[in-house]
Specification:
Layout: H1 30-43, E1 47-54, E2 56-57, E3 69-70, H2 77-94, E4 100-108, H3 116-127, E5 131-142, H4 149-158, E6 162-168, H5 172-177, H6 184-197, E7 201-208, H7 215-228, E8 232-237, H8 258-274, E9 278-280, E10 284-286, H9 291-297, E11 302-304, E12 307-309, E13 316-319, E14 324-326, E15 330-334, H10 338-346, E16 352-357, H11 360-375, E17 377-378, H12 382-388, H13 394-402, E18 406-409, E19 412-415, H14 423-428, H15 432-435
Parallel strand pairs: 1-4, 1-13, 2-3, 4-5, 5-6, 6-7, 7-8
Antiparallel strand pairs: 8-10, 9-10, 11-12, 14-15, 15-16, 17-19, 18-19
Length: 447
Amino acid sequence: MQDLKKYNQPVPRYTSYPTVPFWEPESFTIEAYKKTLQSAYWESSKEVSIYIHLPFCESLCTYCACNTRITKNHQVEGPYLDHVLKEWELYLEMLPEKPLIREIHLGGGTPTFFASENLNKLLSGIISKATLSKEFQMSFEGHPANTRTSHLETLHAIGFNRVSFGIQDFDLNVQKLINRMQSFEQVKAITEKAREIGYTSVNYDVVYGLPGQTPESVQNTLDQIIELKPERIAYYSYAHVPVLRPAQKSYESHLPNADEKWEFMQLGKEAFKAAGYEEVGMDHYVLPGDELLEAREEGELHRNFMGYTPFTSKLLVGLGVSAISDSWSGFAQNEKSIPKYYEILDKGQLPIERGHIHTKADLFFRKHILHLMCDFKTRWHEAEFLEYGILLNYEMLDQLQDEGLITYSDEGMMVLPEGKEVIRVICSALDARMNSSKREHQFSKAV
Ligand SMILES: C[S@@+](CC[C@H](N)C(=O)[O-])C[C@H]1O[C@@H](n2cnc3c(N)ncnc32)[C@H](O)[C@@H]1O
Ligand code: SF4
């Protein structure tokens, strides 16, 4: 067994390329972005995926790295929804014709912070201006402690059949340290309710590397997760970024060390495998028959800001504060501050804070990083290689090859089994923007 711990360095999670800190906002213009949106619209046969960011949470889980606004005041719901609908109108004006909605994902924050009537209002407003694609998919993130039967019923009636619950950890001591209390019984009850209503896929988010975790506590959490048999499990490595999320400083003395965290990752892998789950891409485990497996077989597995999806979306519209849109050859991120987001929309403008228009080299590296993250292999064609290959980090690729983490064949570059553990690091050898930049960044460590 290789000593892979030396690869435990700060690297991006590659939900996109170039990663946000290495965008070039200076050369971004709304006009250029609009053009990329329009060509993505035709390339995707008018289909659009929609991500809606609903940022509010009633209390702060101190470990959380998401973009949230903490409040107990539910009066915020109405104005927020109105503005998201305004933003959707602006996108509709820019698209050449009425779009076909292929996907809607509600993320956060906590979508279930909102009353179900308000979610209904929001989604009806979005859907009524477009047509649903025959193969549409709708999913939402729910906090087990505040997901009500009414949320599940209302969203199911609209077309949602996937739900993702944030579990993180069932251990009481860990839950106290991260200020996030939810019992096994609560999770079991809401999971059963979702299934009873007709949800066909339940995902659990679980995090290893949290403060207070021990091998025994992690094993107990894993056993409890497996007992409930979610269709999918996302087993995330805890991202410690205290400079960006100061609340994470509150428990630093309780954090497991790098060796322990590595052990927790292995415990998860073994437990999920023994329970019949298959690993898909990075961090994800699914039961046999899951469409992500089929997509992987057919080379269709895709990864974007929403995670892994079974088809390649060329046009992802992100609505709401901090949401990121992806028009395949351009990215745009919205304002993170709610007052600013409202102010810009009230002037009838897109609330974009920064963006990036891809160069040809970006598209080359994006394609190969995406293949590695989804299929653990990629193959460069001679002509493109001659043009952009010079920007690869050969020193690193040679080292990865010497250490048995990657190999080359007629099929191109392949990630070997041990290399899968450090896939983010392997992708970073293809990250020409990061490797040639002097900019400071705040990524979490690879494991
Ligand atoms: C928006 S939250 C989930 C929805 C809902 N707010 C909840 O907490 O149940 C998205 C997921 O990101 C993951 N996450 C948040 N902060 C993280 C961190 N610091 N490191 C790793 N994963 C994190 C968690 O697994 C969490 O469930
Ligand atoms: S984990 Fe979920 S509920 Fe907790 S602060 Fe983050 S987004 Fe909000």
